[in-house]
Amino acid sequence: MLLVMNWLQPGMEVRPHSHPFEQVVYVVRGKMKFWIDGSEVEVGEGGMLRIPPDAEHCGAPIGDEIVMNLDVFSPIREDYLHLVEYQANDF
Question: pLDDT 10s per residue in the chain (91 long)?
């Protein structure tokens, strides 16, 4: 698995997408709205959401505060490996 911390700005561009990875989102701070395969769900601080593989999805902050969320991807996203290259010698 691969973990990625995100800071999402209010008013950011929403980009629906899909990928073959399972994704779990944990909202650390703020509140978000997610769209997953045509359904909407709101997740607040401390909330968690699972996005199945290949599901079209996107998310955006609700309100005017920056949202911090932790994404967990499984299996590891090869296209994100550059984000953890600095740890290569530790593993």
Answer: 889 999 999 999 999 999 999 999 999 999 999 999 999 999 999 999 999 999 999 999 999 999 999 999 998 888 888 877 887 787 6
CATH of residue 84: 2.60.120.10
Q: What is the 3-state secondary structure (H, E, C) of the chain?
A: CEEEEEEECCCCCCCCECCCCEEEEEEEECEEEEEECCEEEEEECCCEEEECCCCCEEEEECCCCCEEEEEEEECCCHHHHHHHHHHHHHC
Domain count, the chain: 1
- Of residues 64, 67, 59, the one with CA closest to residue 14: 59
What is the extent of the structural domain holding 61?
2-90
